[in-house]
């Protein structure tokens, strides 16, 4: 913040006050211990994993996830490692690549109720699922009437959360035509090649089933452009 002065006395007073404020600020910062390095390292690595995975950079993604898992494992806390495994599972679901989240399953007994509910959500086990245990942006997705989730999906502002929700809807058999379009364009807008190609494939199969040759060709042109060279 700039300090406006009128004379030498005021300048001196302002300098003194500023010195005192800086001293207090430094003392305040020094009184708070710095967060453990593993937290920031793991967070950065998990973000790097998701970004690389969605862009189709598999080898980089695997390296980043291994780094994140190693940092978190240094705490000796299975529940935290379980969370990291859910991040990996969610990124796969966002790309329509489904499995039973084996990395999480091995640690499920040490996970929280919310984490176990999220794993059920990601793996399509929605029967009896307590939506209140899910992250807020996903609760309405589960509660929506099957086939009427389009508005719910569009209401999710975070692109990755929206893609995860779309993947979960697809696996649960509740995806609608407008949801497919929204998921496709969300992936396109973010430059996420891996889910984009998967959703374009879904749209193309629908066009083929409808006998819409022009749409099939249009989608194929998009696929050809998006494929890595």
Automatic annotation (TrEMBL):
This protein's name: Lipoprotein
């Amino acid at each position: 913040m700039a300090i406006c002065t009128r004379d030498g006395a005021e300048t001196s007073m302002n300098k003194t006050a500023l010195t005192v404020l800086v001293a207090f600020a430094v003392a305040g910062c020094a009184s708070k211990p710095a967060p453990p390095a593993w937290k920031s390292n793991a967070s950065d690595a998990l973000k790097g994993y998701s970004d690389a995975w969605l862009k189709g950079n598999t080898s980089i993604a695997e390296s980043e996830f291994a780094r994140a898992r190693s940092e978190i494992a240094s705490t000796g806390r299975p529940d935290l490692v379980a969370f990291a495994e859910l991040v990996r599972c969610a990124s796969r679901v966002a790309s329509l690549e489904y499995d039973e989240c084996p990395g999480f399953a091995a640690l499920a007994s040490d996970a929280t109720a919310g984490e176990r509910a999220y794993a059920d959500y990601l793996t399509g086990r929605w029967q009896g699922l307590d939506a209140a245990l899910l992250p807020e942006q996903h609760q309405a997705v589960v509660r929506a009437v099957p086939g009427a989730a389009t508005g719910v999906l569009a209401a999710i502002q975070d692109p990755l959360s929206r893609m995860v929700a779309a993947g979960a809807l697809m696996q649960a058999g509740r995806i609608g035509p407008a949801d497919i379009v929204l998921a496709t364009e969300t992936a396109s807008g973010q430059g996420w090649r891996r889910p984009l190609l998967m959703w374009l494939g879904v749209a193309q199969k629908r066009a083929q089933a409808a006998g819409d040759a022009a749409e099939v060709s249009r989608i194929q042109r998009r696929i050809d452009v998006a494929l890595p060279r």
